[in-house]
Amino acid sequence: MNIMMKTLLSAAALTAFTGVAHAGNQECDTSTGTSSCKDSIPIELTVAKKCVLRADDKITVSASGGSSTASGTGSFWVGANADYNLLVNTTNHAGLGPNASFLKGTGANTTTIPTTVTTTRSGGPSINLGEAKTGEPMALSTMNQYDVKVLTGTIGNVKADTYSDLYTINVYF
């Protein structure tokens, strides 16, 4: 063989041996009758937790057929690759009770309309506003659906205006 070929083969053998020797730093003593060296390399994959949240654009609250109250419904869906925590709330909820909130008039209109906001997951208990619901089950192939219902108090003598509140959804691990 020519010198170039011998040099290449020597370099390849040295590289292969060095790679194996450094992998687990196993030393084998073939003088004891052992004809091979063995080691192992762990294989690991870490999949980060993630979620997908989809929600209706708006919950429209309206009175039906001369009713003195109004109601509206909406939904949101959560998909996640691990159990998750859920916190739902409204802007006007603070300190009013587990599901109590209110719709507020615009501009100088300080009139408020009391509401009860309930959130339920199919097959699960009601989720109170402002209280974290922990351990919601992961949803890989079909997203968990949550239904939101808003029911107002009496609206019979309320000033004409657009009244609003904001429903917030926080999914976290």
Summarize the entry for a quick read.
This protein is mostly beta strands. Helix content is 13%, strand content 36%.
How many H/I helical runs? 1
Rg computed from alpha carbons, rounded to a whole number of angstroms: 32 Å
Shape: rod-shaped
Share in β-strands: 35-45%
Sequence stretches where pLDDT stays below 50 over 5 or more residues: none
Supply the helix-strand structural class.
mainly beta
* Straight-line distance between termini: 64 Å
Number of strands: 9
- The residue fraction in helices comes out at 10-25%
Give the biggest sheet: 6 strands, antiparallel
Seen as an oligomer or otherwise, the chain set is: single chain
What is the averaged pLDDT score? 87
List the helices and strands and how they pair.
Layout: H1 3-24, E1 51-55, E2 71-80, E3 84-90, E4 100-104, E5 112-121, E6 126-127, E7 133-136, E8 139-152, E9 167-172
Antiparallel strand pairs: 1-2, 2-8, 3-7, 3-9, 4-5, 5-6, 5-8
Descriptive account of the structure:
The protein is mainly β and 173 residues long. 13% of the residues lie in helices and 36% in strands. The chain has one helix and nine strands. The protein has one helix at 3-24, and strands spanning 51-55, 71-80, 84-90, 100-104, 112-121, 126-127, 133-136, 139-152, 167-172. The strands form two sheets. Strands 1, 2, 4, 5, 6 and 8 form a six-stranded antiparallel β-sheet that branches. The longest helix is centred in the first third of the chain and has 22 residues, at 3-24. The radius of gyration is 32 Å and the shape is rod-shaped.
